[in-house]
Design a protein that fits this description.
Length: 271
């Protein structure tokens, strides 16, 4: 059995986040290709390192995510797959057709995780990291381990701002760069599915892969159009429309998130 919580396995292949910087800016392609590179481990509800003080803010933006109905003291529940794959059903009934069978670990080497949005008897209603964006399904609770946390993220595209909440309290607020008009950052509700230490300065020290995909890019650089949140070697693009879909942060900011937030954090992207 895999380690409990949200531990991530060894990296087996490069992760491609499909987004390009406009003009001469670096491509938003995160590659972690050496055998020593690993997806990072983060335990829900517990920071592996002490966070710095959050910036003062009065921004009233608690996210509007559904609350998991499973009994838990935490706002969010994350399900980590136990076996080598998992079946996702269209209804909480094993007699219904399987909608997806997802591998564990993911192609990147990260453990397969789901954000839980509801429950019924021995079943969990979850967000599913597949196309189309916003897909949901049902998994057997016996096929996963559960862990909870209270973090969530809201991205405001027009304001070029990312806000991290811990419960209803603002934990951090940061400026970001987002997609240009022709390759926009998708809006909607997603969650973080993997975290990597980047080996390319263009993407800063860390990169989160999200559960969503570009709505205009389907095949790029060996990837399938998945987008994410990462740092940058060109902070001049922060606060503007600059990428082909990825969300860029200052390196200090993405480092703070990577040192504290678990995998399976809900991310709501607003206009």
């Amino acid at each position: 059995m895999r380690r409990g919580g949200l531990g991530l396995g060894l990296l087996a292949a490069a992760l491609i986040l499909a987004a390009l910087g406009s003009g001469t800016a670096p491509r938003d392609t995160v590659e972690v290709a050496t055998p020593t590179a690993k997806p990072l481990t983060a335990t829900p509800g517990r920071a592996p390192t002490a966070p710095t003080d959050a910036p003062a803010t009065t921004l009233p933006l608690p996210p509007a995510f559904p609350t998991a109905t499973t009994a838990s003291p935490h706002r969010n529940l994350v399900a980590t797959v136990r076996g080598e794959s998992i079946d996702v059903f269209g209804a909480p009934d094993a007699a219904t057709p399987v909608s997806w069978t997802l591998p564990n670990p993911r192609a990147s080497g990260s453990e397969q995780v789901f954000l839980v949005i509801g429950a019924r008897t021995d079943w969990l209603n979850v967000m599913v990291p597949v196309r189309p964006n916003g897909s949901t399904g049902w998994i057997r609770s016996a096929d996963v381990t559960l862990a909870g946390h209270d973090f969530s993220i809201v991205v405001e595209l027009g304001a070029h701002k990312l806000t991290v909440f811990e419960g209803d309290a603002v934990w951090a607020e940061e400026p970001v760069g987002v997609g240009v008009d022709t390759t926009p950052t998708p809006g909607g509700r997603f969650y973080t599915v993997e975290l990597f230490a980047s080996q390319k300065a263009a993407y800063g020290p860390y990169a989160y892969g999200l559960s969503g995909y570009s709505e205009v890019i389907y095949d790029f650089g060996g990837g399938d159009g998945q987008f994410g949140i990462h740092g940058t070697s060109d902070p001049s693009g922060i606060g503007s429309d600059v990428s082909n879909g990825c969300i860029r942060m200052n390196n200090d900011a993405i480092t703070r998130l990577a040192e504290t937030l678990p995998i399976g954090v809900p991310v709501e992207i607003r206009a």
